[in-house]
Amino acid sequence: MEFRCIPDALPTALEHWQGDCLAVGLFQGSEDGPDQPQLEQLTAELGQSLAEPLQRRRFKAKPGESLSFDRLGATPQTLILVGLGKPASFCLAGLRQACAAASQAAVAAGCRHLALAMPLEALEAGAAAQAMAGAARLAPYSDQRFKGEAEPRTLPETISLIGVAASFEPSLAGVGAICAGVELARQLVAAPPNVATPQHLADTAAAIARDFGGELKLLERADCAALGMGAYLGVAQGSDLAPKFIHFTYRPAGSVQRRVVLVGKGLTFDSGGYNLKTAGSQIEMMKYDMGGSAAVLGAARALAELKPDGVEVHVIVAACENMISGGAVHPGDILTASNGKTIEINNTDAEGRLTLADALVYACKLEPDAVVDLATLTGACVIALGEEIAGLWSNSDGLADALLAAGQAEGEDLWRMPLRSSYKAGLKSQFADLKNTGPRPGGSITAALFLQDFVTPKLAWAHLDIAGTVWSDKGRGADPAGATGFGVRTLVHWICSGATSGTTA
């Protein structure tokens, strides 16, 4: 998919563009329908009356609402009108929603060349151009890898942005790399657990290193044992599939000003262990428990192609399954992590934090400026924030603010949660240094506090709980139903904008 900029507004832009599909954004007017001056102007530009068919088909110009027209014998032959809602509330989020709806409608109409004409006067031009291109690319995504007969679909070959200066066109090349990273994350999350195994994640990292450049270090079970990774290996010991500890490194061509580590939870399937998940806990969906690893690998793929200057990026995934067998970890077992801390297992279904514990210790030994981990860690976070907002915990105001800003810029909502130290009392164990779970109230907070115990003091660290945002049953915005690839855009934006971390609290 190629992105192009057409600096002229309608109708002049149509003199330089001869594609088959035009999408136009319309605001809601004061009456129950689209803004009349906008509609009259569009009618004059196209030479086609639209008022009667819009009224007949009850088009109100509500946010994300779309309506398609076939224009036989005219150019463009397909016209898509997209609702933008009220002008006062229009922002980048609304622009993404509109362009996503337009792109989906263009695919449904079988169009090959789509032009997007949106009112951009109130938005920052560069951010708007990237938002339009990203939404148009990501919204029509459809994973048909495992269907016997894939549904025939025609994706647009070109996306033209009307009213966007040509000077922004080079920056749109990077949008393709970011979107490819998001799509990779979606593919990993959506793949069934008999495909997306620990070895598959390792192979994915190897392919990124091969195709885009980078270094890959793969630690096998014996290597992890030599490093004392008892928490990670304790989770892995119940599975017939060998664990794979993945360490991918991107190094810039020039000098290194910052070093950051991205850590992703890599449970390719989570049965719950002997604290077995039931049908009510969606055991059939535990293929997405590696959403954190998918996000960091997707970010690795994007960064390896974009090649940002000055930032060295390490990507860590402790990949394994959490299964039941004669060798599986028991409730009541005590494991020793690689920093020497002992952990009493009071719930085998709180396994992700055990794998992350050893991954974080390993990450900190790389002496980075900041560590960010992503994990589908707790149902408690979903209860607190729902399915559209990820939780963020951090010991650094600067790092938290930078990630919040990156998420807002990319349309991935984060909400900072408290690291309340008094809640750590819930992790006290009579027999070990700590338990792997605390009481039910504040469960996402105690999970974050558990992880913090494996981070070097005063090192800037952030934890993102993406349990709610990694999957969408019905789709939202530029994310179709299924895996969302959440986190890739935030991480890439943060790193490419300087990977600021600030100081710890």
Provide the descriptors you would attach to this structure in a database record.
19 strands; Leucine Aminopeptidase, subunit E, domain 1; alpha/beta; 505 residues; eight-stranded mixed beta sheet; six-stranded mixed beta sheet; 2 domains; Aminopeptidase; 34% helix
Sheet-strand content, in percent, reads: 15-25%
CATH homologous superfamily classification of the largest domain: Zn peptidases
Structural class: alpha/beta
Q: Would you count the extended β strands for me?
A: 19
| CATH architecture label name of the largest domain | 3-Layer(aba) Sandwich
CATH topology of the largest domain: Aminopeptidase
What does this 3D model show about the protein?
This protein has 505 residues and is of the alpha/beta class. The chain folds into two domains: 2-164, Leucine Aminopeptidase, subunit E, domain 1 (3-Layer(aba) Sandwich), CATH 3.40.220.10; 176-496, Zn peptidases (Aminopeptidase). Helix content is 34%, strand content 20%. The chain contains 15 helices and 19 strands. It has an eight-stranded mixed β-sheet, sandwiched between helices. Strand 5 (113-117), helix 5 (125-138) and strand 6 form a beta-alpha-beta unit. The longest helix is centred in the middle third of the chain and has 22 residues, at 169-190. The two termini are 44 Å apart. The mean pLDDT is 94.
